[in-house]
Amino acid sequence: MKQVISDIIQFRGSHYDFGYMQGELLRESPILPNREKQWGSKRKYHFSIDEKEVQNTLMKFAPGIWDEIVGLSDALQWNLNDAIREFGGYYLEYGRSGCSIFTGKDYIVRNYDNHPASYEGRYMFYHPTDQGYAVVGPSMQITGRIDGLNEKGLAMGYNFVNRKKSGSGFVCNMVGRIILEACASVEEAVDLLKEIPHRHSFSYVLLDKSGEAYVVEASPRRVDIHHNHACTNHFEKLTEENRYRMDESLKRQQTMNTQAVDTQDAYQAFQMMNNMDRGIFSEKYGAWAGTLHTAVYFPKEMRAWISIGGDQKPVIFDFNKWLDGEKVLIKQIKGKLNSNSPFVNMELLTNPGIML
């Protein structure tokens, strides 16, 4: 078992200042050196970008995030092209992963499954003062979000489906960040997902204060929508985009559907996802499909729960209180994984391998 930690980072201010603050933290962190080791000489080949194209696309959908990237660039003393390649979330590759999402009328709970060496260990509270909505949730590739809740009560999580036949567009974590910063409702998020360019095929699960959950199936070619309270790693509408092997994904979805009959509240749903004997939590870390965190978001109550590892009790945050100016006093979220690998925020990795 490996003890792992996720750092809690809080900030209120402009996007540029937010980026600059993160750049200062990253100068003292092993995250970027570990990422460099993970990619090595393949970085420039995989991360080929057109700076103007990325800028124009971000300025259309989320101009504040462009300012954040500029702030990161200035703090790290990088040229802007390198910062865009690292933090722009456009044309970047994204590795395979698991993930399961279950929704009730008042909550969305999700297991994020991947390899520990892919996980940044940064749980972010950010309230912009220039533009966009305040968001709480874990980061990916610094500027992206794995899942989260915004100040309007919109919650979002995503599930990997396929990275074959990739297109020109944003990767999932940047799409998630833009949804949370730019959209006040599931309807607005659906409209954005229909318009924004997608790099890979993912399902985006959305829930707001109305209590109706949407599953948006998005690929580089088209987008479709349906309602379901259980979502894993395959499409139900865009079936032509699915991978050849879906047995494990279908099994997890069926397990959730079966157990949903006896799931009466959010804590029972959390236990269904997080308890290691319930058939949904995964320890397949070597296959890039082990559960790293279980997160729950409550659009009406404006609360967020998160735990790292299995058989845990959630750490509970009152997002409303934070929005009103209270500071979260917890510095880190701690957990244990049945893996030898730490998160990339913890130490310099000696043999990180290729991350994605």
Task: Please write out the topology.
Elements: E1 2-13, H1 15-27, H2 31-39, H3 43-46, H4 51-61, H5 63-76, H6 80-87, E2 100-103, E3 108-114, E4 122-128, E5 135-140, E6 144-145, E7 147-150, E8 155-162, H7 172-182, H8 186-195, E9 201-207, E10 214-218, E11 223-226, E12 230-231, H9 247-260, H10 266-274, E13 283-284, E14 289-298, E15 303-308, E16 315-318, H11 319-323, E17 332-337
Parallel strand pairs: 1-4
Antiparallel strand pairs: 1-17, 2-3, 2-12, 3-14, 4-5, 5-6, 5-7, 7-8, 8-9, 9-10, 10-11, 13-14, 14-15, 15-16
Helix pairs in contact: 1-5, 4-5, 5-6, 7-8
**What's the story with the biggest beta sheet?**
10 strands, mixed
Q: Tell me the helix content.
A: 25-40%
The termini sit apart by 23 Å
SS field, number of helical segments: 11
CATH topology: Penicillin V Acylase, Chain A
Shape: globular
**Number of self-contained structural domains:** 1
User: What value does the average pLDDT take?
Assistant: 93
CATH architecture title: 4-Layer Sandwich
CATH H-tier superfamily: Penicillin V Acylase, Chain A
Class in CATH? Alpha Beta
Strand composition percent: 25-35%
Poorly predicted regions are none
Radius of gyration: 18 Å
Helix/strand structural class: alpha+beta
Q: How many strands?
A: 17
The sequence of SSEs as H and E is EHHHHHHEEEEEEEHHEEEEHHEEEEHE
In terms of quaternary structure, what is this? single chain
